[in-house]
Amino acid sequence: MDIERLMDWVIAKNPGEKEYHQAVKEVVESVQPVLKKHPEYERFKILERMVEPERQIMFRVPWMDDSGDIQVNRGFRIEFNSAIGPYKGGLRFHPSVYIGIIKFLGFEQIFKNSLTGLPIGGGKGGSDFDPKGKSDMEVMRFCQSFMSELFRHIGPLTDVPAGDIGVGGREIGYLYGQYKKLVNRFESVLTGKGINWGGSLARTEATGYGATYFTEEMLKTRKDSFKGKTVTISGSGNVAQYAAQKVYQLGGKVVTLSDSSGYIYDPDGIAGDKWKFVLELKNMRRGRISEYADKFGVEYVAGKRPWGTPCDVALPCATQNEINLDEAKTLVNNGCIAVSEGANMPTLPEAVDHFIENGVLFGPAKAANAGGVATSGLEMAQNHVGIAWTFEKVDQELHQIMVNIHKNSWDAAEKYGHKGNLVIGANIAGFLKVADSMIDHGIV
Ligand code: NDP
Known about the structure:
Blueprint: H1 3-13, H2 18-30, H3 32-37, H4 39-43, H5 46-50, E1 55-64, E2 70-81, E3 87-93, H6 99-115, E4 121-127, H7 136-150, E5 159-162, H8 169-183, H9 203-220, E6 230-234, H10 238-249, E7 253-259, E8 262-265, H11 272-284, H12 290-296, E9 299-302, E10 313-316, H13 325-333, E11 338-340, H14 349-357, E12 361-363, H15 365-368, H16 371-385, H17 391-415, H18 422-440
Parallel strand pairs: 3-4, 3-5, 6-7, 6-10, 10-11, 11-12
Antiparallel strand pairs: 1-2, 2-4, 7-8, 8-9
Helix pairs in contact: 1-2, 2-6, 2-18, 6-18, 7-8, 9-10, 9-16, 9-17, 13-14, 16-17, 17-18
The protein binds NADPH dihydro-nicotinamide-adenine-dinucleotide phosphate (NDP).
The site of NADPH dihydro-nicotinamide-adenine-dinucleotide phosphate (NDP) has 23 residues, from helix 10.
């Protein structure tokens, strides 16, 4: 099936799911050089099978708020592809969540997980529940209700969820507590767990650190590094926080962070006690990033994203579709030399093209932010053998995985005639392993 017919088919079967269409289109276009060389993928209908999830679960999540009113949310888990391992991918709790968002994330996850080199398949889940402004007890009751349905679909060798937007250590704790109560087993069914109960050291840091290691590899291809670079970051959640810390450790200066209300600009750099303030603000008090500006007397720009701020490197770490073409043009005009996606699909396709056409190093999400799920894979491995590695050991493994992902993506791009294009390289490298495994397993 050619690209156009395949996309028409995907759109007809998944109407209105625009984020999913966007994610599929990028992969389908990227793997064309492979399909031309390997007609067996067409014969075995690999793409047609890949774009259809193995299983989609949608369920009611009723819970009681602090005033005694009953609330009803919708829960999702999409078990997309298990060709190379148990389904693996995070849970997102955000009011924007609907099936199209979960499907785009689950589809991306297939190739990202393949790139890590670990035996993990692709899945994703979540709910339109908004943890913002809810009390801990409300979040707990919601998580318990969510898991009361999800538990029957997941398992250490079947499907292993983790966190994503709106699902951090607190939520994973409540979800795990309910799972354990229901199945009466202490097992590795979630990752991002607390260190006292099976979590891995460095999992919290992994996505942000990994994205930064990946960007460092990109810079190395131009004999460059983070030293002395000015870096803009969007978001101020888990990924943004640890990307900021690692950039600082590698010699760069992070000048922006944001949330869905606006961004702060600190020309002196967000590090040390200022960085600790962000962690306390976002992870404990769950406040707004504008409080940083109040506290340290720096600029706060309400309702805007940080991409107008001059920088050498930009790391979008908030959410999907947060860099459009105009913003890409501004970044290029301001001299930005590298953009690497800590978030999933933060750059619109036309903005990606603009970066690549203008020689900006571009790190696509499924490669750049794979450090989170890779370390989740390491958490599963530690759980399976019942040991706990040191922080240094996990960090070293993570670093090596990111170096490998960069090399494999670079090599695949070169081999298929697109030297330096990591979007195409990552898609191809991720695709091949899954496609070959699907052929090995027959028509299932
Ligand atoms: P968090 O919930 O910890 O933080 C999300 C951040 O993004 C917050 O600052 C939030 O602001 C902001 N944000 C969320 N939605 C929007 C929006 N619509 N517009 C503007 N800002 C928004 O999530 P994570 O840091 O875990 O995730 C960030 C991104 O990284 C996501 O794309 C996620 O899929 C991706 N990712 C995460 C991994 C992980 O291990 N956590 C692994 C791989 C990818 P506010 O508080 O105002 O909502």
